[in-house]
Amino acid sequence: MSELHHLLTFPKRPITEEFYVKELNDLLKSGIPATYTLEQVAEFERNEKKKLEDPNYKEEESKSDDEESSSNTTPLHIMSRSLPKDLTKSEEEVILKLMDILFEYGAGWNFIDYENKTIGDLLLEWNSSVETPLYRRLVDAGVSAELLLRVINGGEVEFLDNDNFAEFEDNDANNSQEITTEQETAEVPQKIEPISADHEDATAAHSETFLNTKLEYTDDALVTKTNRDGVMMDWETNIMKLAANTLAPKHGATVINIGFGMGIIDTFLQQNKPAHHFICEAHPDVLSRMKKDGWYERPGVTILEGRWQDTIPTLFDLDEPVFFDGIYYDTFSEHYNDMLALYDTIVGLLQPEGVFSFFNGLGADRRICYDVYKKIVEVDVSQYGLKCTYETINVEQDDERWDEVRRSYYNCPVYYHPIIRFA
Ligand SMILES: C[S@@+](CC[C@H](N)C(=O)[O-])C[C@H]1O[C@@H](n2cnc3c(N)ncnc32)[C@H](O)[C@@H]1O
C-alpha cells in the first residue's frame, strides 16, 4: 500500500480538512497519480523483489493481456471501502473535498476493483441510498466524464456498460483518461447496444445481422434461435404495463410503439382502447407472428413493416398529418446514437402534451452506470426542448429469469421509467 492509499483508509479521526486535504494535495502534487492502483503497487513490489534477487533483471515494458491485471483498485475504491459508518456531517464535507481533488487530478469513476466492484458499489454498501452527497458526487463525475468524452470523440457517443468497462491507462492529471470505454460487451444482448463495441456476437451488436437472424418464441421469452440471446422476456411485463398506462392513460389516444417483440406493451395499449395504434416492426419472424395472432386485422391498428428509420419518416408524408399522444421505443441491437437520431424525429410527431418513453436498460449492467445514464438522458433530451422525469419501480431480483438465455441484460434492483415531455 502506498502513502496515498494509506491516507485514504482514514487512519486518523476525526477526518479534518486541515490534515486530509493538505496531505492529499501534497501527495498528488508530488506526482503520485490519482489513478494509482493497489495492483500497480503490488507489481512494483514484485519487480523490486526480483531486482534484488537478480541484479540483471529487467522490467518488461509491455505486458500481454494475460499478464495485465484485470482489476484496478483505485484510491477512490480504498476511500469508499474505508468510510466509517459513523461519519459525521463535517467529515462528509471533507470527503467531498477529497473526491473533488481526486477527480481534478484525473481519478476515474468507473473502474472495477479486485472484488469486481465499482466505487459506486462500495459507496452503496456503505449507505444504500443513491441520494447521499458522496454517491451523487460520483454520479456527477461520471456524467461529466461521459459528456467530455463525447466532445473529445467529436460528438460520437461511447456507451458505457458491463464488465471491465473502464480500461486502465497510467494517467496523469487530466480528467478524461480512463473513460476509454473500449467495450468488452461482446456477449451482452443489450436491447440498445453500446456503440463501437468490438463484438464477437454480431447478432446483438449489429442491427442488420439481428434482422437476418432466426428468432424463436418460447413460453416466456423471444430469443435468437442459435445464440439464445434474450430479445424480450416476460419479466418486463410490469414495466410494459407502466409504460402503456403512461402513453395512453385514457381511451381514444393515438400511439405508436416501435419494436413489437412479444407484443406485451401493445397488448396493454389495446386494453386502453386507443383510437389509432401504430406498431413499427422490422423483423420478419416477428411480423409473421403478428400476422398469425391477428394484429393486422385489429381495428385502429396500423403496422409499419420495416426499420423505424425507414418507416417513421413516411408518417410525415401522410395526407392527414398524424401526431402522437404516446411514442414508445424498445428495439434490439441498436445503439444509443440511434435513440439520439430518433429524438430528431419524435419532436415533429409528438403532441404538445404527448409523452415519449423507452425501455430504459441504459447502463443497467452496473448500478453506477445506470445512474449516470439516467442523467445523461436528461441532458440529451433537454437539447430538444424535452424534459425527462423518472418513475422508479423495484425489479424483482430473481436470477432464474436468465436461465433460458445466454446472459442477463439487466442487473439493477430498480427500474427508472422515463417520462419525456416538452418542457
Ligand atoms: C425488445 S423487443 C420489443 C418488446 C416489446 N416492447 C414488448 O412489449 O414485447 C424489440 C423488437 O424491436 C424490433 N426491432 C429491432 N430493430 C428494429 C428497427 N430498427 N425498427 C423496428 N423494429 C426493430 C425487434 O425485431 C423486436 O421485435
What does this structure look like?
With 423 residues, this protein is of the alpha/beta class. 36% of the residues lie in helices and 15% in strands. It has 2 domains: 3-59 and 66-152, Serine Threonine Protein Phosphatase 5, Tetratricopeptide repeat (Alpha Horseshoe); 215-422, 3-Layer(aba) Sandwich (Rossmann fold). It has 15 helices and 12 strands. It has a 5-stranded parallel beta sheet with strand order 7-6-5-8-10. It has a 3-stranded antiparallel beta sheet with strand order 2-3-4, with no helix packed on it. Strands 1-9 form a two-stranded parallel ribbon. Helix 10 (237-247) crosses helix 11 (264-271). The radius of gyration is 24 Å and the shape is elongated. S-adenosylmethionine is lined by residues 191, 207, 231-232, 240, 258-265, 280-283, 286, 307-309, 330-332, 334.
Which helices and strands appear, and what pairs or packs with what?
Elements: H1 3-7, H2 17-29, H3 38-53, H4 75-81, H5 89-104, H6 119-126, H7 133-152, E1 192-193, H8 202-205, H9 207-211, E2 215-217, E3 221-224, E4 230-233, H10 237-247, E5 254-258, H11 264-271, E6 276-281, H12 284-292, E7 301-305, H13 308-311, E8 324-329, E9 334-335, H14 336-346, E10 350-358, H15 367-382, E11 386-394, E12 414-422
Parallel strand pairs: 1-9, 5-6, 5-8, 6-7, 8-10
Antiparallel strand pairs: 2-3, 3-4, 11-12
Helix pairs in contact: 2-5, 4-6, 5-7, 6-7, 7-15, 10-11
The structure holds S-adenosylmethionine (SAM).
